[in-house]
Design goal:
alpha+beta; single chain; 263 residues; 9 strands; Immunoglobulin-like
């Protein structure tokens, strides 16, 4: 769910109206028809991501608001019972006795109070398990500073992506791996950052369908590619653009993604 909020550039806790406003804004910005021919494919992908993120976030917020409405209604009912508990008459007692006659429930005010407490406890448990299944345990933890440079610095990275100024701030270097999950052979074009901050030239790896470079990419000199930041675009076996483009390659870092997974 966090990734959907990143795509829209929003933080957890926003309202449905705020999500709606941001969604309309991004649809205009990412409209492929307003882009030049060489960028249409890239923006088409991003356009679909925005639509998917809006759908998932909206559904989750609508479900959450429904739970809150149920809570309000139950609390309202509970308060009514509390206020009338001290002035019980024969009619409500008779109804409760009729409903639970087989169990011979004692309808004293003490048991009624226990019933209300049990009802509240069940309500709390319901809300807890609902939220747990909806967001996952990670949704309850405090969000850490996000190091995903692509989402947090989108406008800035647009001007840097083809230059040598990109720096995610990631100071960890890992083996860079590729995983082609598709049914066709793909050509991965990758440029990665050296320890001194300079970028390598664009290198090409042809990866068979369903193949995974478990040992990491070779640097061409008998070594293995270790890097903190990298950028890439992908073409098909026939040379046609498959993912992103040469003019606008994807940029990320090994603090977030040590492997380029393509589906």
């Amino acid at each position: 769910m966090e990734n959907y909020y990143k795509i829209l550039g929003l933080k957890l806790g926003v309202t449905l109206d705020e999500v709606e406003e941001k969604y309309k804004q991004l649809l205009k910005e990412f409209d492929p028809e307003k882009q030049s021919e060489d960028l249409k494919e890239f923006f088409s992908v991003e356009y679909e991501k925005v639509k998917e993120a809006y759908k998932e976030i909206s559904l989750s917020l609508i479900n959450t608001e429904s739970v809150e409405q149920v809570v309000d209604e139950i609390n309202s009912d509970t308060n009514e019972i509390d206020s009338e508990k001290e002035d019980l008459d024969v009619s409500p007692i008779k109804e409760l006795i009729d409903e639970s006659h087989e169990n011979k429930v004692d309808m004293s005010s003490v048991n009624l109070e226990r019933y209300l407490k049990l009802k509240r406890a069940c309500l709390i448990m319901f809300i807890f398990f609902f939220l747990f299944s909806l967001y996952g345990w990670s949704s309850f933890s405090t969000l850490k500073d996000d190091k995903d440079y692509w989402y947090n610095n989108y406008n800035k990275i647009i001007s840097e992506i083809n230059g040598d100024d990109y720096d995610s701030g990631c100071n960890k270097r890992y083996k860079l791996k590729l995983h082609n999950h598709t049914d066709q052979e793909l050509n991965f074009h990758v440029s990665y950052k050296f320890r001194n901050g300079e970028w390598s030239s664009w290198l090409n790896w042809s990866i068979d369908s369903r193949y995974y470079t478990s040992g990491g990419l070779g640097d061409g000199d008998g070594g293995t590619v270790y890097t903190s930041d990298y950028r890439y675009y992908i073409t098909t076996e026939s040379g046609r653009s498959y993912l992103y483009s040469y003019q606008m390659p994807h940029v990320t870092n090994t603090c977030n993604a040590k492997c380029i997974n393509i589906y």
